[in-house]
């Protein structure tokens, strides 16, 4: 049996980068940071931060572009994917990324829940769109990690 499953809960390190493929499909690239806390043998608390690149496709990429901002909490479930490319200097490079399959938005960096702030769209900032039809906002499930100091494996429900 083979399993390729990744679950990340962390914060965005930058705003999502949104692109569109030549066929019209949306792609979002997200930078995420996760922290690991432990106590060493001498009783000192330790922390290590890991940085991840997450790729989202289709509707999830569009949602990421509208609602996600730097510092926001995010839950991602997906799979690892390694790809090779040729750098500008001609050398071969390999990069491992997480391809997101499921996503839940968390609270924003300032502590306000993601549902209480209007999504980031060009229509929010352009006066010409004031008379445009209202956009139907969908309810997006959120998580809140601010209350948790440390996640213990026995607290995970699965």
Your description of this structure?
The chain has helices at residues 58-67, 122-125; strands spanning 6-12, 17-20, 26-39, 45-57, 73-86, 92-106, 142-143. With 158 residues, it is mainly beta. It has a single domain (6-155), classed as Nucleic acid-binding proteins (OB fold (Dihydrolipoamide Acetyltransferase, E2P), Beta Barrel). A 5-stranded mixed beta barrel has the order 1-3-4-6-5. The longest helix has 10 residues, at 58-67. Mean pLDDT is 81; it is low at 113-118 and 121-133.
What's the layout of helices and strands?
Elements: E1 6-12, E2 17-20, E3 26-39, E4 45-57, H1 58-67, E5 73-86, E6 92-106, H2 122-125, E7 142-143
Parallel strand pairs: 4-6, 6-7
Antiparallel strand pairs: 1-3, 1-5, 2-3, 3-4, 5-6
The main sheet comes to: 5 strands, mixed, barrel
- SS element count, helices: 2
CATH topology type: OB fold (Dihydrolipoamide Acetyltransferase, E2P)
- The whole-angstrom Rg is 18 Å
In whole angstroms, the N-to-C terminal distance is 19 Å
Helix content: under 10%
| Helix and strand element order | EEEEHEEHE
Mean pLDDT: 81
Key descriptive features of the protein:
five-stranded mixed β-barrel, 9% helix, single chain, OB fold (Dihydrolipoamide Acetyltransferase, E2P), 7 strands, 158 residues, mainly beta
In short:
This protein has helices at 58-67, 122-125; strands spanning 6-12, 17-20, 26-39, 45-57, 73-86, 92-106, 142-143.
């Amino acid at each position: 049996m083979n399993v390729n499953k990744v679950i990340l809960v962390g914060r965005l390190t930058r705003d999502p980068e949104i692109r569109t493929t030549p066929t019209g499909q949306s792609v979002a690239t997200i930078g995420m940071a996760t922290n690991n806390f432990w106590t060493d043998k001498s009783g000192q608390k330790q922390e290590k931060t890991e940085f991840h690149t997450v790729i989202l496709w289709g509707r999830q990429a569009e949602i990421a572009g509208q609602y996600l901002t730097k510092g926001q909490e995010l839950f991602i479930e997906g799979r690892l994917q390694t790809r090779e490319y040729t750098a500008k200097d001609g050398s071969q490079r390999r990069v491992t990324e997480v391809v997101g399959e499921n996503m839940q938005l968390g609270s924003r960096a300032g502590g306000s829940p993601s549902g209480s702030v209007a999504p980031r769209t060009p229509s929010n900032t352009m006066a010409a769109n004031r008379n445009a039809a209202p956009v139907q906002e969908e309810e997006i499930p959120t998580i809140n990690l601010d209350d948790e100091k440390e996640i213990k494996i026995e607290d995970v429900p699965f």
